């Protein structure tokens, strides 16, 4: 009962383990105390007992209910390897899809369905076996499937084709799931890259802003200096003008009046 923890890609939260078999919950139910168990595990236990195996609180068949939705979601989304991984099956998928995959897994051991033949093989070898099995006889109605016996009354062409169809569908679901996971992990990776780029851009922006601030303050200081130099220049010019004016006035009083107008014009 339960799924072996080794089959999961990451370690499974304790809350998703069966209180009885300590494996990951399979076909789970929950008691009023919130503890969860595999259905067969707890039914077996309640034959002898009438309490929760974990906390010994009262528990009866009638108080068992389906797993809460959030726990079910957590359980369903666990990534699990196919039970035939050791035989070579590379498939991993969500727990909720693994039963469908395994029902059609190409590495699963199957028995030749032909009456009289008892050979066992991996499913992927069955088609080839059926083409050469000594007990082989094809459906006379034209579906092309092998008949299980000479007068196979259970054979229905439609049912055979539907079964093949179902197998293909479950394989497709797993493949789609794998692609979806692939796609999601790529998106996550791209997001991380973008986030790093944004952080780098922000740092660059901060650095640029510092440079601009330095330049602006340097510019402001320079224009203040220029203003000050202008004021100094004006002050100096005024001083010079005043000095010259006084000088000229003094010369005027010292010299004869004939050269007065010429002197003044050359100064201004
Ligand atoms: Zn169990
Ligand atoms: Zn309990
Ligand atoms: Zn498989
Ligand atoms: Zn056979
Ligand atoms: Zn047929």
TrEMBL record:
SIAH-type domain mapped to chain residues: 77-135
InterPro entries named in the record: Znf_C3HC4_RING-type, Znf_RING, Znf_RING/FYVE/PHD, Znf_RING_CS, Znf_SIAH
Pfam families tied to this protein: zf-C3HC4
Residue ranges, annotated region (Disordered): 249-268
Domain RING-type: start-end pairs: 18-56
Keyword field: Metal-binding, Zinc, Zinc-finger
Gene Ontology MF annotations: zinc ion binding
Compositional bias per record (Low complexity), positions renumbered to this chain: 258-268
Name recorded for this polypeptide: RING-type domain-containing protein
Natural source organism: Capitella teleta (Polychaete worm)
Biological classification of the source: Eukaryota, Metazoa, Spiralia, Lophotrochozoa, Annelida
